[in-house]
Every structure is written in structure tokens, then in C-alpha cells.
Structure to design on (767 residues):
């Protein structure tokens, strides 16, 4: 997944000067431009100038190489798109500082001309501190980033200022950004961000035109630092969880009891260092502060735990403190599977039912990873944590039974790699142990879905606060429910770099992406609003789409399907654990499906051993949908329906109706052939001129036309009425935040457009 993160960061740095290239400025932005520049003006300035200047402080020679290294990273990311100049803070004229976008890095700049800029910015630097919004920031670890603010020397050009109370701390922070894509640290997603080492303590935006602080967007997390309770081994610190006194007491006693159990099992009462236990209330807030939404996160270096302590996560039930206690008492494990596995072994209700239940389900259904994958550190670390953690815990439990505690603890500290014969023997014994001690109760198959009326819920915001799992996402789902929808498809993406070469497909863990936590939180929001959930993972293929996937040899095809199975296995297990109502096992693969039905049948059968709900596949319109041969393996036929309806500039409604009726005849034939109901897993039209020609096409230079979109909605709704073989329709698409206005008003969403009224009318219809 690091490849995807690097790619996203590359997109982020180009976004600043490319994002609004095809879209005209909104009315509000144009009005703001008359009173002062807008944020869009600042972003588009990069494109207009075709260049950016990075000016770094030379006050501390020891950190200059760090500044230069990351400036070079930015230059590499932008090569061919933007000229990057890197300049020291000496011999700079006022003219040089005003001619193009600027990025100032450091503090104590030597050139007096830079003071002309600094004096006009909202962050006021002084010796050992800075002031912002009437508050002085004095902590030695504090740093800030002011993003794309109008340059006081030329308000049509942006200036970004990245500074800290100490140059060395700024350099350390910059180094830590290396895992997030190198030069991407130069561009932030907010108007300003304030950090305390690794944690965001405040952020917000500025108002277009006036460039005053936008109070509605302002987030100040510094107020959440109260110590709630202390116990023998813990200090509990509030980060917005809002636990009641009883909940806090239960947590405190539960944590202490867990530590006592581990100590008793190991036969030690040696004192432990105190664990600082941070309690977060919302995935969004944790993501904004730590850039990580993991519900149960540990920092061994600082002996700290960070949990999402409220539903749907209740991260405290995953007992992350076990890892720290074992690390303190036993020392560092010799293998990652031992460290994670033994920590989960001591977790009483891992994902509600416990690790033996989930590992048993994997074993019984043929989905348990091979033992060699647990023993291979790289394979273990990159695979699904859900799959690997319960598998590792069950293997540890088996070893404790088979070897006894003394030998196991010796191997924990100094693992002796088994030869192949011993590996085979251990694997056989492990699976037999799971057969005896595993799942127990059979999963209840959930078959029938209510007629689906809804949307693909699109993660349109990558700033955490406006994407999956955010408060804005909940507001968006609430509106969708009030329009009469009863279903949403949640669409996390995996990434393939090459369409003709197999590569491992990872799960997104970035705070701003469609990570597990944001998907789970969105599903919880959906259920709270009475919406059924379809988990619909999709593959993003670099420079293409899933229909381009075409391997060049049978060996490569075999490897591709193995990688894909591992990826979809993760989501199947997550869907089962989190009570998703349905699962889509693939989307629009075209060549990879039509030419390889047996591989898909094997995947479907294995996935059904994990996930007990209804399963579908979303076929692309045309050749794939009409030639797929494994529909009988599924509960529903899925169609991403973008059949053209007319080539005309202005067809009559009756012509569009007749064309759609022909499409429905084609779809019904497939339904009757396989005796399966059909879900329109995608269908949609942009709000632009002639959306009926090629409904899937990009906007291009077509003007906005809400009436054309609305007409297409009417045609589809009228055509689908009273079709008993249609199990539902999931339109493409509904945004994760309601202010989204993609493609300058020409996107697929009907939100706040004419089609919204049509949508509400038909979603409210009993049929």
C-alpha cells in the first residue's frame, strides 16, 4: 500500500495547480476574487506561474541538508509539470519574492526582504515561539504549516510557511514525512495546521476574500488533554471520548484485570512502566490528530495506547495494552507473528467472538493462511491484519498446548526456524487443534434483501473531515435516507500499478483514504439511518480500469488471482465481522472474468465460507455482462449499466425510453437464463449536455445541463417500474460530503440538482 500512498501524495502536490483546470470558478469564488483572492485563486496560481520557489533558512547549517533533500523530492514529483527553484534565504530581492508561488521553510530567515512577507502573515514568529489567533505557542516540539496564503507582496500569488520553535524539530518532522511520499509535506490540505511532534493539535481554513479564520472549520484539539484517572499500571487521558464515570471505572478495572491475567500466566509480578491510555471519541478526530484511524493503536517507544473508545469500534476491547505489557515483561519478540499473536491470545473478546472463533472459520472454509506466511515476516506484515492476527493467536495457542509454556517462551525470544518437514508437521497439528477448538456455532446465512433503492457512496474527500467516517459523511447519509433511499454501497479501493503484471494488492491504511475504520464507521452511520449496506471493494488500476487487466502468461494469471483472493478475503472477513448486509466480490474486470470463470468460481466458494450474507459481482455493461458464465455461483446478478441510449443531441424522451427498454430486455434475458434477480450495481448520468450518449464518459468540454441528467433519471425510474426480476438500483454516485461539486457542477451526483426531486419522488414510490 506504500506505492498507493506515494501515488496519492504525488497527486496531492499536483492538485495545487491542476485541480480546477477544467472547472470555472464558482460564483462565491468569483465574488471573493472581487474583494480579495480566493482559495481557488491561490491553487490555480501554480498553474498560471508554472513554477514554485522554495526558500529555506540557513540559520542552522545542520538542518539545511534535510531541507534540500525534501525540496529535491518535490522537484522530482513535479518534474515536467512545474518548475521548482530551491533558494537559500540570502540575496533575495523583493521582486524575486513576489513573482511566483513561494514555500518558506524554517525560521530566523537572514534576508530582510522576507520580513516583508512574514509581517503580513497571521502567524507571527518571535524568538523561541510564535503567535496565532491571539494565542502564544511556546512548546519546543511545536511546529506549524500555513498553506497557500496570499503573499503580502503580491496577493495573486500564494505563500506557504512551514516553521517551528526549533529548526532541529522541524527537520525531524520533515524526515518523518518520508513514509508519506517524500515531497508531499510541502502542500497541506488545510489553510493552517499546528503540530506537536506527531500529533495535530489545531487546524482550520481561511475565508475566501477576507482571509480571516473560518470559525466553522476550525478544530482545536488541545483542549482534550485531561487526565481522567490513574491506576496501578495506567494513566487514562481524555481525547474527546466522553465516557461516563461507570464506563471509565469498567475500563480501568478491565485493563488492570487483563494485566493481572498476563502476569499470572507468565508467573511474574515485576513492575511495569505506566501506560498512558488515550481515549478518542470519533474516528475523524483521531485521524485528524494522529493521521491514523486504527481503533487500537500502540506506540512502544512512548509506552502509549490510543483507542477509539466509542461505538462502533470500542477499541479498548481489542486490549492493545497487552502488546506493551508483553514487550516489557518478555522483551522484543523474535518474530512479528509471535508479538501480535500472543497479544491477541490474551484478548478475551477479539472482535466480539474471539480469535479461536474467527481462526476456526478460516480453517473450516479453507481460508486459513499457510503457516509459511506467518513465519515469513514480510508476508505476515503486509497481509490483512484481521486474517493474520487471529491466525497467529491460534497458532500461539496451539504451540502453548503442544510445546508447553517454557519452550514456547524460549522460542518467543529466540525463534528457531523449522525445516520443511517440521513446518508441515506444525501446520497439520495447528489445523487439527483449530478443528477441535474453533468456530463451534454455524453462521446464519442472511439471504433476502429488501428491494434496493440507493447509491454508491463515494469517498470524495481526502482530508479526513470530509471523507468516509466523518461527521460530514454521516450528514450526507442522513440526507440520502430522508430522500427515501434504503441502501448504500461502500466502495474501498485497492491499487494495481500494472494491468498486465501481477502485484500484491494492499488494504488502504491512510487516514484520508477508504481505510477499514472509515468504511466501518460509514456502515455504522448507514445502519443508524436505516440504510442497508453493500460492501463493494474495487480495484483502481494505474492509467486504466479493471477491464484492462490482462496477464501475459498462465503463471501471471495464477499469481494475479492469488493476490486478488487475499485482498477480497480481507473484505469478506471484515463484512462478516461488521455485519455488512451484502458483499460484491469484484467490479468490472471484463477480460479477467470472461476468460477465467473457474478462477472466479473458486474465489466465490472460498469467500462464502467466510461471509454468510448474499454475494454478487458487478459486471461491466456490454460484453462482460452478456458473456459471464458464473452467475449461478452468486445470489444476485450485478450490472454496472452504462449502455448508450442515443447519439442525438436532443432526442425525444420517448426515444430514450425505447432505447432503455431494449437494454432491459437484454438484462432480463440474462436474469431468466440464470434464474437470478438483477441489481443495477451502478447506473448514472452526469449533469452535462448529452449524458445519454456515453453515460460513463468524462465531462470533457460539455456544459452543465441539469435538465438532461434529470431526464435520464426519469427514463430509468419509469423503465424499472414493475420489473419483478429487478432486485434494486444503486445509482452512481452520492458524495461523502454535501458541498462536493465535482467537475464544476457536471459530476454524477444529483445532490442539490433537478434530479434530486425526481429521485425523492421515485424512491418514495412503493414499487
Amino acid at each position: 500500500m506504500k506505492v498507493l500512498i506515494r501515488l496519492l501524495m504525488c497527486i496531492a502536490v499536483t492538485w495545487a495547480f491542476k485541480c480546477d483546470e477544467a472547472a470555472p470558478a464558482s460564483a462565491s469564488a468569483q465574488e471573493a476574487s472581487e474583494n480579495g483572492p480566493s482559495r481557488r485563486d491561490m491553487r490555480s496560481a501554480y498553474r498560471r506561474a508554472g513554477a514554485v520557489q522554495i526558500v529555506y533558512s540557513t540559520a542552522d547549517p545542520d538542518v539545511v541538508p534535510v531541507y534540500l533533500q525534501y525540496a529535491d523530492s518535490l522537484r522530482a514529483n513535479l518534474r515536467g509539470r512545474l518548475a521548482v527553484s530551491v533558494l537559500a534565504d540570502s540575496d533575495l530581492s523583493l521582486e524575486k519574492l513576489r513573482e511566483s508561488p513561494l514555500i518558506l521553510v524554517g525560521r530566523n530567515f537572514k534576508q530582510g526582504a522576507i520580513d516583508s512577507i512574514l509581517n503580513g502573515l497571521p502567524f507571527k514568529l518571535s524568538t523561541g515561539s510564535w503567535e496565532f489567533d491571539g494565542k502564544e505557542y511556546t512548546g519546543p516540539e511545536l511546529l506549524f504549516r500555513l498553506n497557500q496564503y496570499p503573499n503580502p507582496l503580491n496577493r495573486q500569488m500564494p505563500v506557504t510557511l512551514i516553521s517551528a520553535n526549533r529548526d532541529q524539530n522541524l527537520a525531524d518532522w520533515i524526515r518523518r514525512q518520508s513514509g508519506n511520499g517524500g515531497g508531499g509535506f510541502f502542500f497541506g490540505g488545510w489553510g493552517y495546521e499546528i503540530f506537536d511532534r506527531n500529533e495535530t493539535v489545531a487546524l482550520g481554513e481561511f475565508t475566501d476574500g477576507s482571509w480571516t479564520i473560518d470559525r466553522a472549520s476550525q478544530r482545536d484539539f488541545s483542549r482534550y488533554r485531561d487526565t481522567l484517572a490513574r491506576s496501578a499500571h495506567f494513566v487514562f487521558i481524555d481525547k474527546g471520548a466522553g465516557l461516563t464515570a461507570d464506563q471509565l471505572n469498567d475500563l480501568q478495572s478491565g485493563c488492570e484485570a487483563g494485566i493481572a491475567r498476563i502476569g499470572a500466566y507468565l508467573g511474574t509480578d515485576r513492575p511495569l512502566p505506566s501506560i498512558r491510555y488515550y481515549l478518542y471519541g470519533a474516528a475523524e478526530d483521531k485521524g485528524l490528530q494522529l493521521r491514523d484511524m486504527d481503533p487500537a493503536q500502540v506506540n512502544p517507544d512512548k509506552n502509549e495506547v490510543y483507542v477509539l473508545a466509542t461505538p462502533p469500534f470500542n477499541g479498548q476491547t481489542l486490549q492493545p495494552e497487552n502488546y506493551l505489557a508483553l514487550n516489557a515483561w518478555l522483551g522484543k519478540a523474535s518474530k512479528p507473528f509471535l508479538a501480535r499473536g500472543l497479544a491477541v491470545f490474551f484478548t478475551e473478546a477479539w472482535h466480539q467472538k474471539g480469535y479461536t472463533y474467527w481462526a476456526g472459520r478460516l480453517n473450516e472454509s479453507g481460508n486459513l493462511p499457510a503457516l509459511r506466511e506467518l513465519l515469513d515476516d514480510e508476508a505476515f506484515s503486509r497481509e490483512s491484519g484481521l486474517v493474520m492476527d487471529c491466525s497467529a493467536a491460534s497458532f500461539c495457542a496451539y504451540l502453548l498446548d503442544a510445546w508447553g509454556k517454557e519452550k514456547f517462551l524460549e522460542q518467543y525470544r529466540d525463534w528457531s526456524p523449522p525445516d520443511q518437514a517440521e513446518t508441515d508437521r506444525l501446520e497439520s497439528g495447528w489445523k487439527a487443534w483449530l478443528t477441535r477448538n474453533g468456530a463451534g456455532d454455524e453462521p446464519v446465512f442472511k439471504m433476502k434483501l429488501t428491494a434496493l433503492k440507493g447509491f454508491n457512496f463515494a469517498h470524495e474527500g481526502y482530508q479526513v473531515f470530509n471523507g468516509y467516517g466523518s461527521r460530514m459523511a454521516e450528514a450526507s447519509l442522513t440526507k440520502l435516507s430522508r430522500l427515501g433511499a434504503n441502501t448504500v454501497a461502500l466502495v474501498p479501493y485497492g491499487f494495481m500499478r500494472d494491468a498486465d503484471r501481477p502485484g500484491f494488492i494492499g488494504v488502504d491504511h491512510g487516514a484520508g483514504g477508504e481505510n477499514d475504520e472509515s468504511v466501518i464507521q460509514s456502515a455504522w452511520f448507514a445502519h443508524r439511518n436505516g440504510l442497508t449496506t453493500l460492501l463493494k471493494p474495487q480495484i483502481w488500476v494505474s492509467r486504466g480500469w479493471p477491464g484492462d487487466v490482462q496477464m501475459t502468461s498462465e503463471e501471471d494469471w495464477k499469481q494475479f488471482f492469488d493476490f486478488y483472493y487475499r485482498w477480497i478475503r480481507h473484505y469478506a472477513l471484515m463484512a462478516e465481522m461488521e455485519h455488512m448486509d451484502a458483499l460484491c466480490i469484484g467490479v468490472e474486470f471484463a477480460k479477467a472474468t470472461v476468460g477465467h470463470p473457474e478462477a472466479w468460481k473458486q474465489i466465490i466458494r472460498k469467500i462464502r465460507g467466510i461471509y454468510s450474507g448474499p454475494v454478487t459481482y458487478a459486471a461491466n455493461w456490454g460484453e462482460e455482462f452478456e458473456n459471464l458464465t458464473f452467475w449461478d455461483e452468486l445470489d444476485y446478478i450485478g450490472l454496472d449499466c452504462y449502455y448508450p441510449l442515443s447519439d442525438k443531441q436532443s432526442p425525444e424522451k420517448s426515444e430514450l425510453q425505447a432505447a432503455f427498454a431494449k437494454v432491459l430486455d437484454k438484462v432480463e434475458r440474462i436474469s431468466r437464463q440464470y434464474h437470478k434477480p438483477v441489481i443495477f450495481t451502478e447506473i448514472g448520468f452526469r449533469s452535462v449536455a448529452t449524458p445519454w450518449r456515453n453515460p460513463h464518459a468524462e465531462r470533457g468540454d460539455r456544459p452543465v445541463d441539469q435538465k438532461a441528467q434529470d431526464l435520464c433519471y426519469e427514463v430509468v425510474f419509469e423503465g424499472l417500474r414493475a420489473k419483478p426480476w429487478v432486485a434494486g438500483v444503486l445509482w452512481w454516485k452520492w458524495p461523502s460530503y454535501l458541498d462536493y461539486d465535482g467537475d464544476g457542477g457536471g459530476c454524477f451526483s444529483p445532490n442539490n440538482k433537478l434530479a434530486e426531486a425526481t429521485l425523492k419522488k421515485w424512491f418514495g414510490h412503493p414499487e
Q: What stands out?
A: Residues 117 and 655 are 62 Å apart (CA to CA). The two ends are 43 Å apart (CA to CA).
